[in-house]
Amino acid sequence: MTTSPGGSARQQHDFPVIRKGFAHELQGLQDDMLELGSMVEKAVSKSVDALKRQDLESSRRIIDDDRFINNKRYEIEEKCLRLLATQQPMARDLRIIVAVLHITVDLERQGDHAAGIAKIALRIGVEPLIKPLVDIPRMAVLALDMLHRSLDAFIKLDVAAAKAVVGADDEVDNLHNQIYRELLTYMLQDPRTINQATYLTWVAHNLERIADRSTNICERTIFAATGKMEEIGASKYF
Asked: Can you list the domains of the chain with their CATH numbers?
């Protein structure tokens, strides 16, 4: 049996098997990221629904379940680091792993925003709402659509789709400004609404941040696909 200068016959034979195993692990990593994204989507949706229905027990569960989102993030990070250390990926594979590391942080933070909305719901309690919640649920739908589309764009490494997601952020921002102005009017007209109106502005802010973090995911998609970091959504968080 002959060998090549690059290594033994066994090494030459094993290499494709090793790379096949790496491809499987890389796919599993992305599947884990999508699972985390699904957990976050559910948490955000449930938090806004619990606020609207003033379901305090559901709000408490959302806060308690945030630990599962945190744990999933740490699990994914450990897998990323193991792949980096043992497989020494190059080029696009390396960029995908680095992008997943960053995206899981944004997803975990979005989970924190969902828990924040649930905490606000507990602060408002069963006090009658100063107005029917219409625009806040609309804002949540838009933000969640951005999140879902941003993750889909990453899995497909679709740069055009990633950039298209960012355009929806303007609609979220406009709705956020509308909610803020309306709640400010309530506070000026009746000081007794200040406490609850302030809480509701925080809810809108959390939803705005969820949308902003989806633009971060889109930026990482462009990086993974092209190797270039491109700022397509300036952060408005201070």
From this structure: 22-226 (1.20.58.220)
